Amino acid sequence: MKPYLKWTVISVGSIVAIAHIGVLGHLIREPRVSQVPTINIPRGPYSSYKIKAGKDGYEIEYRANDPKTLTSERSLDLEESKKGFFGGNRTLDKTEYRRDEYTAEGARNLGRVSDEGKSDAKSAECIAADAGARSQGAMAGTSIAAGVAVPAVASIPYVGWLASGWALLLGQNLGSEAGSTVNSLMSDC
């Protein structure tokens, strides 16, 4: 065997042997125990958090402004006795109760959700009324189209079946728009 070939085989064999020993050492080594991470959660006068830890991981629920609303309750009892103009006595017994909600900034909640694109109760009622009106209009438009337009276009040769389907869809769309328009005129939406 030639000397340079002999040293090449010894070198490659040594590299493969060292690599195998390194891989075995890496596989045999015991796994390290993971450390619990340090989480610095910002704390304030209105913040709250909840941490759940398990072997699958961590779950953190954090609220920066909790409670979101503050509640104030007041009651007033009023008892008043007045002498009437013609000599009769009148007694007034009145109890007034008031409950207000405030945000953390001190603004009073007036019943609306917010002005950031979220709807209040009236617009939710308007959306529901518009959906109902569109549905009723679509049914009426479809039935009118089925009685008037479909018999007229169904007799067209070769495409009558297709044209009658288009007539039904057109009647449904026109009825839906008409129902929405009538609803917006009748209700204050």
Describe the protein's architecture and organization.
This protein is an alpha+beta fold. Among the domains are: 72-83 and 90-103, no CATH class; 121-186. The chain is 46% helix and 23% strand. The chain has a two-stranded antiparallel ribbon. Strands 3-4 form a two-stranded antiparallel ribbon. It starts with a helix and ends with a helix.
Order of helices and strands: HEEEEHH
Average the pLDDT over all residues and give the rounded result: 79
How many β-strand runs?
Answer: 4
What global shape is seen?
flat
For the biggest sheet, the summary is: 2 strands, antiparallel
Instruction: Note the beta-strand portion.
Output: 15-25%
> Runs with pLDDT <50, length 5+?
114-119
Q: How helix-rich are the residues, as a percent range?
A: 40-55%
Class computed from helices, strands and strand pairing: alpha+beta
Q: Give the radius of gyration.
A: 40 Å
Distance between the termini: 100 Å
Tell me the number of helical segments per DSSP (H or I, 4 or more residues long). Answer: 3
Q: Numbering strands along the chain, what is their spatial order in the largest sheet?
A: 1-2
